[in-house]
Design goal:
Elements (H helix, E strand, L loop, with lengths): L1 E8 L9 H16 L5 E6 L2 E6 L2 H5 L1 H9 L4 E10 L3 H11 L9 E8 L8 H16 L4 E2 L6 E7 L4 E4 L3 E2 L11 E5 L5 H11 L3 E8 L6 H18 L1 E8 L1 H10 L5 H19 L5 E2 L12 H8 L6 E2 L7 H11 L2 H4 L21 H8 L4 H10 L2 E6 L3
Parallel strand pairs: 5-6, 5-7, 10-11, 10-13, 11-12, 13-14
Antiparallel strand pairs: 1-3, 1-4, 2-3, 4-8, 4-9, 7-8, 12-15
The chain binds adenosine-5'-triphosphate and magnesium ion (MG).
Length: 395
């Protein structure tokens, strides 16, 4: 019996002229992820990537291979499937041999079919009925058919080259292939929102690199490690991610010495944006990404965002902008960053936090405050002192 992995495209299936470029990136990503596990043949047709283990190591690693493929952006669903000739007897024999392993302890199932090869002599309902019957036969009285709410759906697909049988699909990561849509610099804090923002951009195919601002010794080494940990969790999807760490300690100390407290956060955020843009340009990223959501905190009102954006000459993407906190938390749990994000280490933004931050700042007043300290020299120093950490997956 031959078992393969079927990985089904998401949005790439809707692409027209440039579809092959997306497919090429997608398939390269899959091949690179599978290479350490063994030999696989990877082909594609009809909006599906067919992955067949071709050596013993690969066959033994099929579960790991499924995990890898589930984390590839551009894939919406992943199924382990057995392959049969396009002949109903061969299909039924295979169903009896292959399907019972997915039904241990299962009470109900239904059989479904998809027939993209319309020349196949049986219709989809006929195939489903035959496969359902074969499964009932081999399972004896241990399982019942329930077409409305089955525990397991056994799917038979009659495709161009072969027939495939599987017991349902696992979700894929969705989106577009990683790296198919340029590169952006994520402002990554240790909080809940920015890892989610990075994930959402990466899922749209944008290669993501991160910049993190710290305020050592006001912020701790654990706070930095936490951010690197968050980056490595995102690497389950992106495989690698550089994190550029910049100290803003001196900027914050000078701010405190020279400017009105109400403006600390806004002025710091303007420095962070200017520095992030410099890092972005240095590393070939053409946009910034933040985890801001409108109205979430004082620095995220329309007026405050306008004042911070004013210093940047590249697009600033904020994929969380219209999300409620609980929606962001749900996504953070789903991608696995939440537990790390809520570890209680301080962020540079909370050091010297004003008691009454400006929620409706006027640009004129902000500029007057900013002119009170030499941010240019301080930012040059901070930029020169940036340290880059390569984050990667934990084995
Ligand atoms: P998060 O949960 O992502 O920390 P937040 O709601 O706490 O967001 P802020 O602290 O105001 O909001 O930060 C808003 C955004 O600014 C963050 O989502 C992130 O993109 C960026 N940011 C904040 N602090 C830092 C930092 N220390 N380093 C890099 N970026 C930061
Ligand atoms: Mg934060």
């Amino acid at each position: 019996m031959k078992e393969v992995i079927l990985a089904k495209y998401g949005e790439i299936a809707l692409k027209g002229m440039n579809r092959s470029q997306f497919e090429a990136i997608l398939v390269r990503e899959i091949k690179e992820r599978l290479a350490p596990l063994g030999e696989f043949s990877v082909t594609w047709a009809q909006s599906t990537v067919y992955i067949e283990p071709t050596d013993e190591a690969a066959r033994r690693a099929t579960d790991d291979a499924v995990y890898e493929v589930q984390h590839v952006f551009g894939i919406n669903a992943v199924a382990r499937a057995a392959v049969a000739e396009k002949d109903i007897d061969a299909i039924l024999t295979l169903a009896k041999e292959y399907v019972p392993r997915f039904l241990a302890g299962v009470k109900t199932f239904k059989a479904e079919s998809k027939r993209s090869d319309k020349k196949f002599p049986l219709t989809s309902p006929q195939i489903s009925a035959a496969v359902g019957h074969a499964v009932c036969q081999v399972m004896g009285g241990r399982i019942k058919v329930d077409v409305n709410n089955p525990d397991v759906t056994v799917v038979t697909e009659i495709r161009e080259s072969n027939a495939y049988i599987h017991a349902g699909s696992l979700p894929g990561a969705g989106g577009l292939p990683y790296g198919s849509n340029g590169k952006a610099m994520l402002l990554l804090s240790g909080g809940i929102d920015s890892p989610v923002a990075g994930f959402m951009m990466a899922r749209r195919g944008v290669r993501v690199e991160a910049v993190h601002f710290e305020s050592y010794p006001y912020t701790s080494e654990q706070a930095r490690d936490k951010v690197l940990e968050l980056a490595s969790i995102l690497c389950e999807y992106t495989r690698s991610m550089k994190v550029h760490v910049i100290s803003v300690t001196k900027i914050q100390e000078e701010l405190r010495r020279c400017c009105d407290e109400d403006y600390f956060t806004l002025l710091l955020r303007r420095s962070m944006m200017r520095l992030a843009e410099r890092v972005a340009r240095k590393y070939g990223a053409s946009a910034l990404v933040t985890g801001e959501a409108i109205g979430q905190v004082a620095s995220q009102t329309m007026e405050a965002l306008t004042v911070t954006d004013e210093v940047v000459n590249m697009p600033v993407f904020r994929p969380c902008i219209g999300m409620d906190k609980d929606e962001i938390v749900t996504r953070a749990r789903q991608i696995g960053t939440f537990e790390t994000s809520v570890l209680p280490y301080e962020d540079c933004c909370t050091v010297f936090m004003p008691r009454r931050p400006k929620t409706r700042p006027e640009l004129k007043k902000v500029l007057a405050q900013e002119s009170k300290y030499d941010y240019k020299t301080l930012e040059d120093e901070a930029f020169a002192g940036a340290v880059t950490y390569p984050a990667g997956r934990k084995i």
